[in-house]
Amino acid sequence: MKLFGFAEAAYYCSSFTAEPGDAEGSLDSFIRNNLGSQRIIREGSPLFVAYRSCALRESERLLFLAISQYRRCLDLLIPSSSPWSHVTMYYGCFFAAKSILGMFGSVIFNNFVVDVHRSSPSSQELVKRRIGNRVGDVQTTYTGSHKRFWDIFYRAVSPIRPFVVPSVSFAFSPISNNPTWLIDRRNEINYDAYEALHHADIFSTQFSAKSFPASLPGMLGTQYALLESFIEIASTFARQLSLRTDALKSFSSSGSISSIVRDSIFYQKIPSLVSKSKKVTIMRALK
């Protein structure tokens, strides 16, 4: 899978135009409705302009969602919900990783990718390719959409790793040389109640808010460090590459993404709704 170089990605992102119609909606739907059997998307064509508009909007949405998951995982750091905090951290990494790929001209779906065919500004081309084992396919030995994603992602971002500051560049390498570490750990907690509560028990004995994040135990600490690194990388690239779209206009028609993130994520107060829930009914039912 091929990405734009840094200068080519800056050209691609800064050339965004707010196209109407399908380009305002889902990227998945845009591809299904507009590509058909066409594989090459050439700059200068109406298809390229519309695709770029849709893809860059998607990249900005994904960055917003990644930061939202980051905020949410902090709110969940109590023993009973610490397993779900881990799952939330995973999705923050996943969204940030997809956002990064989008800024560099590429996306990964279940059975195909769209990646770079030609990089040069004014003659850029993107190509839709299968994930499989034929000549010209994007190769992976993994099954399952998330396992495929991470295997392809780690190999794809290797050329842009030099543009990442060393303190967070470890996010571009698989933990323990295992490209599926992230999704394996998520599945372990998400689908096995014993494992979820086992990790909650460990959290309850080791976690201290005073020494956060150092007190996050084991793989939860690793997952959190990865999340912060992925979000720092994606946010830095968004600024450096001039990623600015209208994808978040429902939050603010004129604000920058930094002000939208500040006001809609970090400064938002969580509503206190327990008193309005069926807490009393549940407690009675358990007696």
Secondary-structure element sequence?
HHEHHEEEHHHHHH
E-strand count: 4
- Mean pLDDT across residues: 96
Uncertain stretches: none
Share of residues in strands:
5-15%
- Largest sheet, if any? 4 strands, antiparallel
Radius of gyration: 20 Å
| Overall number of domains | 1
Task: Give the strand order of the largest sheet, numbering strands 1, 2, ... along the chain.
Answer: 1-4-3-2
Helix proportion range? 40-55%
Morphology call: globular
Give me the secondary-structure category.
Answer: alpha+beta
How many DSSP helices?
10
Terminal residue distance: 57 Å
What does it look like?
The chain is an alpha+beta fold. It has one domain (6-272). The chain contains ten helices and four strands, in the order ααβααβββαααααα. It has a four-stranded antiparallel sheet, sandwiched between helices. The longest helix has 30 residues, at 46-75.
Write the layout of secondary structure elements.
Elements: H1 6-14, H2 27-34, E1 40-42, H3 46-75, H4 82-103, E2 107-108, E3 112-118, E4 125-130, H5 145-156, H6 181-190, H7 193-206, H8 218-240, H9 257-266, H10 279-286
Helix pairs in contact: 2-3, 3-4, 3-8, 3-9, 4-6, 4-8
